[in-house]
């Protein structure tokens, strides 16, 4: 009687978007089946299937970098097994006399097709890329969690006994894929690519946790580090590559932006730098957006935890408590990972920018005539000016991200405080105007400081060129004090 009542209660909501299935349905703590199939299965797989053909074509044009090995054979066998289980689930869903919801067969069919396409993507990624597939690892990590939730829903539904028996096997196979797809291929790299740095061959999990640095930390803990102990630089961080990327483009003077820019315009170097390093700069945006999302999850979690602490202990509230524990773990781990990746990618593109600009200056210094050269200006550009540019770029992404955070905070304050939210908004506005005024003052002082550095370098250079006369006239102490 209880199972029939549960089935009746769930059947009325399982064909709706939900997402909450409501009370008296599968332990009072579950999604509707339609929501689970659409948003936990169809949507993520459809997004990946849109990207996968482009990735396959892109990699197919690259040369082979990894030899065929037992790891590749294991991957292919596991993908075939996953496709077979998806086909079995499709047959089980299609053979049912009554439908639970309208997305069950489309979801099963798309999963079967997806397993075949992703198996092909896994093969191409394995032999044509030196690192584990980012797309596959991210997709498998999230969907194995989603599939675990779906497996629980099927297990609690008495009408889905056969499906609830097969689906956990599919989850287990996918979990095995999570493990083997994340394995490094360094031992199987061809000789031409065997000396690549650890970061270049590390998977998404090692790079997210900076696990690839442990070898260097271990070596530094037992011995004093030398330059030879450091890892080889990634190709995109090497000076010759950066010079070709930025310096050569500057020499050609080719700009494809819609705004006409010439090498003599004030912002031409800035425009060309942004153009040549656009992808490293844009790579910072996703982790920064994730950090914003995780930060704004915290007030909602606190509100829910306070409300939860005032409720009596029941089966439903116990399930909510477990959900809150998982949510807190997800949010704080997400904050740590997204913060690390945001800062890492920020300093990575800053390093690329610094390397490109300094290589351009050195190249120009070797070509310019001695009569036209200003040693003081050149040295100032390679030291103080470059560092000033780099310091500004460290907070470059904070401009748009802080603007977005302020807008979201204002919206949330208005929901909680109403008209009273104008008070903290007014304080923030006054602070913003004050910081803008201080910024203009600081920029003027920085310009004076750089001019003073340039004069000091010029005087030092003149003194060193006339050192014999300085010593003969006994001006050493006087110039030491002045400089």
From TrEMBL:
Keyword Nucleus: no
The entry's keywords: ATP-binding, Membrane, Nucleotide-binding, Transmembrane, Transmembrane helix, Transport
GO-annotated cellular components: membrane
Domain ABC transmembrane type-1: 289-483
Keyword Transmembrane helix: yes
Membrane-topology annotation of the record: Multi-pass membrane protein
Transmembrane segments: 38-60, 72-93, 105-124, 136-156, 162-180, 321-338, 417-438
Predominant place of localization: membrane
Coiled-coil region list: none
Pfam families in UniProt: TMD0_ABC
SUPFAM superfamilies: ABC transporter transmembrane region (SSF90123)
Places the protein is found: Membrane
InterPro entries cross-referenced by the UniProt entry: ABC1_TM_dom, ABC1_TM_sf, ABC_transporter_C-like, TMD0_ABC
Example GO molecular function: ABC-type transporter activity
PANTHER family: ABC MULTIDRUG TRANSPORTER (EUROFUNG)-RELATED, ATP-BINDING CASSETTE SUB-FAMILY C
Name of the protein in question: ABC transmembrane type-1 domain-containing protein
Native organism: Periconia macrospinosa
